[in-house]
Amino acid sequence: MYAKYIKREIPDLNGIGRTQAYYQMELTPKSFEAFVSQCAREGNMDESQILAVMSLVSEKLALCMAEGFSVKLDGIGTFNAKLGVRSDMLQDAFEPGEPSHNSQSIQVTGVAYRADKDLIRNMRRICILERGGESRIKKSRLTIEERIEKARAFLQKNMFMRVPDYVRLTGLSRTTASQELRKLALDPSTGITSRGQRSQKYYVLR
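Given the sequence above, the corresponding structure tokens read:
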């Protein structure tokens, strides 16, 4: 089986003088109907049988995760629920005087999935990779100093800033903006720090 990979550029945030790269599969969408049809054809089964089994697995998988179970499907992987604070509320902070959220503000935000080693081995065995295109970093016309000043000015008018706000301010790609903000938050001289974790992370003035 042949597939293409894309070489993507990573910004030089470590000051080593050159950009680095990582590799990503070039993905082609496959519809649910096409997947079911392939399973039925290669498994010599009726499509209605495949649909019934997949619907049952989906329903019971959601039920088990909702009850707090981590579910392992041999040959596929392990699934468990991910939690987070509702998007209209700020993340809790472990600091004196910070209000704690109640259960009404916490919700399921996604599913954590860890692939089974057999699944990875099977993919590696049958996959033949070919080089596809390249993806270069979207550069900002602003200097780092100008970007920091824009971020400070934004925070003087707003309570907090998230990555999409910094993208609009600077013209950077989302990935580069996220990486740059993390670096700025670690440098006290920027006057910017972070609160929250992962998808709930936001930035404020020190």
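Strands lie at 2-10, 20-25, 71-73, 77-85, 106-115, 128-135, 192-195, 202-205. Try to locate this feature in the token string yourself.
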